[in-house]
Design goal:
The radius of gyration is 17 Å and the shape is globular. It is of the alpha/beta class and 218 residues long. The chain is built from ten helices and nine strands. Strands 4-1-5-8 form a four-stranded parallel beta sheet, sandwiched between helices. A three-stranded antiparallel beta sheet has the order 3-2-9. Strands 6-7 form a two-stranded antiparallel sheet.
Length: 218
Amino acid sequence: MTKRSIYIAGPFNTGTNLVNKIISKCNCIDLIKNQPLTLNETQPFHKHTVNMQEIEKYLENPNNLLIIMYKNPYNWLYSIKKAPYDIKYTKMFLPVTLYGKTFPNMLELYNFYYINYMSILKRHSNCIFLDYGKIIDKNTSYDYFNNKLSKIYLSINSKDNFHTTLNAPAKNHGSSVNNVNEAYAQYLNIQNMVKQFVQKLPNFRKSIKPILINYHQI
């Protein structure tokens, strides 16, 4: 019987490394086959890809599971300012380029990702999303994580390992925070600050799409 495996994708700075560590270290169980789940180590596509057809092709196989990472637009803008990786830009509200595609501003790049992700999530039952902001809230994160995983018949069985993983840096590159408490405090402080910044730029503010924020509150 073919073993199910999982892959984690999302825009830069949305928590893909953190969730990768949680899945690999916290005894993730495939509830259908009652066996440990493995991460897909073949990298079927670049986890930050803008080629959505690659994601669609991967999900055609029901044994291929996918977690898409979500971060609200305000915190995402701040994290990109800190570490843009392959995103080329001069100002957030001016054109940006990623992997040969150009977008009117940084929020329109964000919208491109999540409009496409939302469409994929609605059409594929072997795909879920996780909200980075809810994962780093230690008071509810374990239950939130398992509730979302249950939709693709997975479970994290080691709560201790889960919290141990949250209390360590998610990655060894970039400007990573030291633990989840630091990440969550920073997350809450930054959100209002960036909202105020966006409000001062009316044309930039128009690129905020409430439908994307509302969809990912579930």
